[in-house]
Amino acid sequence: MISVEDALSLILSQIREMGSERVDITSSLGRVIAEDIYARRNNPPWDNSAMDGYALLYADIKGATRDSPAILNVIEDLPAGYTAKNTVNRGIAIRIMTGAPIPMGADTVVMVEDTEKDGENVKILRGTPLGENIRRAGEDIKTGELVVPKGTVIRPAEVGIMATCGRAFISVYQRPRVAVVSTGDELVDVDEEITEGKIVTSNSYTLSAMAADCGADAFQLGIARDTREALKEKLRQALYADVIITSGGVSVGDFDFVKDVLKELGSEMKFWKVAMKPGKPLAFGTIGGKPAFGLPGNPVSCMVCFEQFVRPSILKMMGHNRIYRPVINATLKEDIKKKTGRKHFMRSFVRLEEGQYTVTTAGDQGSGILKSMVAANALLIFPEELSLLKAGDKVKVQLIDRTFDYSEAPGY
Ligand code: AMP
Ligand code: MG
């Protein structure tokens, strides 16, 4: 049986990046940028005033105090958005607003709070240091500087800096279309009656939600009945997508046809079964270069397999430069046991306690117990070669939901 590590690197070796598309920056939030954004000009473009005050020459106000103020003649009023008509010389000041370009000749701005207007003149009451209150051209961004590198996930700050650089349209990675097919005669959809022996196809919903959570365009193709023909029909439709995900039908049951039908449709099957729990019967292949994931039907198995293999694959397709969940070291708060041989991903809950991460398991670990997935914010990684972890041990935990990042109070 292939290890989790080998399965993941085999899968990722088959994944190609999507092409790009142009979007306007207002709809780029959360997308991955597919080009390097360089500044085409300085920001600020010119030296400008950081304060409302007076632009003047330092030599005129050096050593000024409230008792012996410097007195200058105010020759112009300069609002933000305009350039001064006059040059500042000895004995002269220009009234200046925040953001207005520094007038020719001026080398210092004295803030209005340190002055007193006196008719045509202004009294400077404090010897402000040379160059004070001037924001220098290019102090934020220099012409030619790389401001947003390719592969960055766009946040509001990136949207703002791209606007600053005059970029209204940018190139982002296309979102892969992910087709989700659930298999099983026992399945009904959420709005259908549950008669004897039937269950709702929750996997269709968790899987499309997980794909959407990665930023992909998820589409549910519905339920395929457990016949080769029905399955083939659904999977044929799925071939139009960029990623194919099936749930169920990959075990050794009499009606587990997913692998066979994928093969019949031209899939090159790369492996079946991974040394993990839950999620062992995972099957992976490619059809015409597109990845096809045959996930197990048990609700938690399919989620854990998605987390370990499908999520990094979708993020890689979308050009992300970071495709893995954060893994932290946390102190285990209970003893846990398992058989050796497989890597276990245990639904757990991580807390930040006095600056230290602690972890507890999040209830029953049966692969059909979706409730403990709801209770979890992390997957504890229990290595294949170990059979016992003890309270107090440092363990690796994969953070699948950062709820502990949120506090009940603002904390200041
Ligand atoms: P299978 O992998 O097809 O043998 O299914 C394993 C278990 O998962 C069975 O108990 C199924 O009823 C359950 N299961 C399969 N598909 C789904 C689904 N789409 N939603 C919820 N449970 C499912
Ligand atoms: Mg089945």
Give a structural overview.
With 412 residues, the chain is of the alpha/beta class. The protein is built from eight helices and 28 strands. The chain has a six-stranded mixed beta sheet. A six-stranded mixed beta sheet has the order 16-13-17-21-20-18, sandwiched between helices. Helix 4 (202-213) runs parallel beside helix 7 and helix 5 (228-238) crosses helix 6. It is elongated. The model has no long low-confidence stretch (mean pLDDT 96). Bound molecules: adenosine monophosphate and magnesium ion (MG). Residues 182, 184, 186-187, 199, 201-204, 247-251, 253, 296-299 line the site of adenosine monophosphate.
As a whole number of angstroms, the C-alpha radius of gyration is 31 Å
Sheet having the most strands: 6 strands, mixed
In percent terms, what proportion of residues is strand? 25-35%
Please, what is the oligomeric state?
single chain
| Uncertain regions spanning at least 5 consecutive residues | none
Q: How many DSSP H or I helices?
A: 8
Bound molecules: adenosine monophosphate, magnesium ion
Indicate the structural class: alpha/beta
Question: Roughly what is the average pLDDT, rounded to an integer?
Answer: 96
Helix content: 10-25%
Q: Care to count the β-strands? A: 28
Strand order of the largest sheet: 7-4-6-5-9-8
**What does the overall shape look like?**
elongated
Distance between the termini: 52 Å
